[in-house]
Structure formats: structure tokens, C-alpha cells
Write a structure and sequence with these properties.
Blueprint (H helix, E strand, L loop, with lengths): L16 H7 L14 H5 L10 H9 L3 H6 L11 H5 L6 H14 L7 H16 L4 H12 L1 H6 L1 H9 L13 H15 L3
Bound molecules: iron/sulfur cluster (2 copies).
Length: about 190
């Protein structure tokens, strides 16, 4: 029988996905969600998402593991924490989004997504200088991960450069070694089994 669009067969679902999420840092409170939609209504990037934060939680409960972890929407979270402070159930939605990203990266659902690539490049730049270098970040991201986007955004980049927002000079922080130790420890703590 032909499957209707939007309808999932139970055999294709991962019904213990919610239990898996509860085990990883950030995912513990997912069962408390009442689906009120405050997170999605507050989210500054939800208008760009197919699956908003509220919906991602509903999909997790429904066992749609592949659809959630493959979704480019989880990479659109900018960690603004607006959902986090407004959720009436005290759910740390931002942490939940991080949990999705970690799982998506570990299980290789997300490595082709631009958001994942941007995060990787951002971390390599920050590890190098102890802070961001906007020009290097944009050059690497648009050069390696999104050349067409680079062409489209040339004039925005030029405008930022002319206003001194993309400085050519690079500044390193003083204690780069100490900073790297902190980053390594954080990565160690966030590592999934
Ligand atoms: S605001 Fe909280 S309770 Fe409401 S849908 Fe979002 S996560 Fe669920
Ligand atoms: S933290 Fe992420 S999911 Fe939450 S409101 Fe901000 S951008 Fe949206």
C-alpha cells in the first residue's frame, strides 16, 4: 500500500528516541513539555525553520529520530536563550538544541549541513586565536562550505569591511594555552558515549 505523505509507519519510527534524549546532557527534561509553543513563538529564527523547537520536541516524542537529526533546523539555533527563559515548564530548550546537534554530529546526520560546517570552522578559528576573527571565519565558511552564498553576500561583506567590522589585523588572547585547556575539558565533558 502506498504510504500517505506526512504519515509515518510505526516500523519506521524510533520509539525509544525520547529515552535516548533523556540520557544526554540537555535532554533530561524533554518529557515535561506541554506543547504550548512559547519557545517557537519566541525564537528569532523560527520563521526560517520547517520544524520549530516545539515541533522538534513533538517529533522526538513520536520517535522521528532520523527526521529530527537530519533537520537543518537544529543548526539554525543561535543560542539566544529566549526560549530557555520563557518556557513555562522550565525546560532548557537551548540545551535541548545542543543535544540534538551533538547527536546529529556523532551519528553523522549533520556533517553535510552548513550550520555544522560553520560551527566547525568557528571552533577552529577560536582555537587558533582564543577569540573569533570574523574575516577568517567568513573567508573559510564561504570559501569551503558555501561559495554561492559568498557571491550573494559580497556587498554585505564589503559594507562591513568599509565600516571596520571585518578587521584585517588579528588579535590573539594572552593565555591561549590556558584557553585551549578549558575548551578541551568542555569537549571532553560534552562527548557522547
Ligand atoms: S515553551 Fe516549553 S512547554 Fe512550551 S512548547 Fe516549548 S518546550 Fe514545550
Ligand atoms: S535559543 Fe535557539 S531555539 Fe531557543 S529561541 Fe534562541 S534561537 Fe530559538
Amino acid at each position: 500500500m502506498k504510504e500517505q505523505k506526512g504519515i509515518q509507519r510505526e516500523g519506521r519510527l524510533t520509539l525509544d528516541f525520547i529515552d535516548e534524549m533523556k540520557q544526554i546532557p540537555g535532554g533530561e527534561q524533554i518529557a515535561l513539555c506541554i506543547q504550548c509553543g512559547t519557545c517557537s513563538g519566541s525564537c528569532p529564527t523560527s520563521h526560517l525553520m520547517t520544524h520549530t523547537p516545539r515541533r522538534l520536541i513533538a517529533m522526538t516524542r513520536a520517535g522521528m529520530r532520523k527526521e529530527v537529526l537530519e533537520s537543518p533546523d537544529i543548526w539554525l539555533c543561535t543560542s539566544c536563550y529566549y526560549c530557555y527563559v520563557r518556557c513555562p515548564r522550565g525546560i532548557k530548550v537551548t540545551d535541548l538544541m545542543y543535544a540534538y546537534k551533538r547527536l546529529s554530529a556523532r551519528d553523522k546526520f549533520g556533517i553535510q549541513k552548513r550550520g555544522y560546517k560553520l560551527g566547525k570552522i568557528f571552533m577552529s578559528v577560536v582555537n587558533k586565536y582564543g577569540r573569533n576573527n570574523e574575516l577568517e571565519l567568513l573567508a573559510k565558511f564561504f570559501g569551503f562550505a558555501n561559495p554561492i552564498g559568498g557571491i550573494k553576500n559580497t556587498f554585505i561583506g564589503l559594507g562591513l569591511f568599509l565600516k571596520g567590522r571585518l578587521p584585517l589585523k588579528t588579535h590573539k588572547i594572552k593565555d591561549l594555552g590556558g584557553f585551549k585547556k578549558i575548551v578541551n575539558k568542555a569537549e571532553e565533558l560534552a562527548r557522547l558515549p
